[in-house]
Amino acid sequence: MAGTLNIAVCGAGVGGLAAAILMARSGHTVTIVEQFDEAQPVGSGLMLQATGLAVLRKMGLEADIAALGSRLDRLWGLSQPSGRPVLDVRFEKLREGLFGLGVQRPMLFDQLFVASQREGIGLLTSKRVESVNAQTGDILLETGELLKGFDLVVDALGVRSPLTRAPRKELPYGALWTTLPWPGSGPFDRYALEQRYRAARQMTGVMASGRLDAASPETLTYFWSIRTDQYESWREAPLANWKAEAEQLWPETRPLLNQITSHDQLTFARYRHRTHDDPVSGPRLVHIGDAWHAASPQLGQGANMALLDAYALAEALGSAATTAEALTHYKALRKSHIRLYQLMSWLFTPVYQGDGQFTPWLRDYLAAPLSRIPPAPALLAAMVTGAFGSPLKKLALRD
Ligand SMILES: Cc1cc2nc3c(=O)[nH]c(=O)nc-3n(C[C@H](O)[C@H](O)[C@H](O)COP(=O)(O)OP(=O)(O)OC[C@H]3O[C@@H](n4cnc5c(N)ncnc54)[C@H](O)[C@@H]3O)c2cc1C
User: Fold this and answer.
1) Distance between alpha carbon 54 and the CA centroid of its chain, in Å?
2) 310: CA distance to ligand 1 center in Å?
3) Is 168 left (phi over 0), alpha (psi -120 to 50) or beta?
4) What pLDDT, in 10s, does the model give residues 148-185?
5) Is the dihedral angle over the CA atoms 321, 325, 327, 330 positive or is it negative?
6) Protein fold of 6-169+272-394
7) 334: nearest Cα among 295, 386, 380
8) Is the full-model pTM beyond 0.90?
9) Is 289 in the pocket of ligand 1 (CB under 6 A)?
10) How far apart are the two ends of the chain, measured CA to CA in Å?
11) How far, in Å, from the CA of 9 to the mean position of ligand 1?
């Protein structure tokens, strides 16, 4: 692109930090605007897929992140009380050597944050963004302060971004989650994200989520799905009631449940679904990550999608002659992949989280047996790794 831009990235999450680093490396002047007093991660452990890892590799961060993450080869779920396998996705069915990476969000954040500091990127903290003028690039903060002079504003404010008008659909289910030490004596598969379901009303899972740093112990992320409208009553009821239910669904989690002694140890995550049709809101405002598209984490793509968006935006800015052309190109690079995964996530979420009886019955007795017949295993692996729609090919990120 002819000339460098003065860019504000609103939001220091996965997408915002990655976009800031990549654009700063292309020579743009970048400032991050974040609401927290100190930039910090919020949220559960997460699974990085080949898509997100390819971006991190390009950024030179993959090796350090992989060294601290937990390699995951499989998604493995049993329906209870029958014990029928209803989810069995093996990454190697798509490509030998393919894997996902369970990571702690604070570790991923630290790696990205330190890299952003190395690039000398400005960070404005305690600044809550209220609105942006898409024509002028002026940012209005909650305090009434105006930040001016930006050629481009990148909205990386996540699913609650005030900068888009796309309706947010609250999903009926969310999840309680916590991070616990990995139990050396088993019984969990350290290379699988394991889940147990009762119909689609109850779901619990365990995923190895690596270490915070080289000196810290290995961890796992434990989660329990819960209806959003039942969260308050869950908090008010004795913890023992829920623990009995959780243990009944998956008796082997008892040693984990024994470590949970207060409701406060479990964080509640609400799930929302939204897709803003156009990621470009004007000549100076563009959306990435959850601010553009958010879904339930059932397919585990959100952070990976945010990394792909960040890479696409930086690439588009690097190859186009004007900002307008770059934003059009960015949209073209990402739109079909986003649409495909938003649709799949919308279709699949009720299969694993919902109140209906018929959908889980179909899952257990029809879909699960069919999913073992080729080419279904390879297609499932492609879906979970984010490969449908060939996003890496579009971004020339293939090895
Ligand atoms: C329980 C759970 C499990 C998940 N598991 C996975 C998984 O396994 N794999 C996966 O890929 N994805 C997963 N996701 C989804 C993933 O976390 C998100 O898609 C991803 O974090 C989106 O990144 P982002 O940068 O767009 O937004 P965020 O990470 O939400 O970052 C937004 C940033 O903006 C800041 N901010 C917000 N509003 C303002 C404001 N008004 N002013 C200033 N700053 C503001 C926030 O403080 C934050 O730093 C999961 C999500 C949940 C809830």
Assistant:
1) 15
2) 14
3) beta
4) 989 999 999 999 999 988 777 778 888 999 999 999 88
5) negative
6) FAD/NAD(P)-binding domain (3.50.50)
7) 386
8) yes
9) yes
10) 25
11) 14
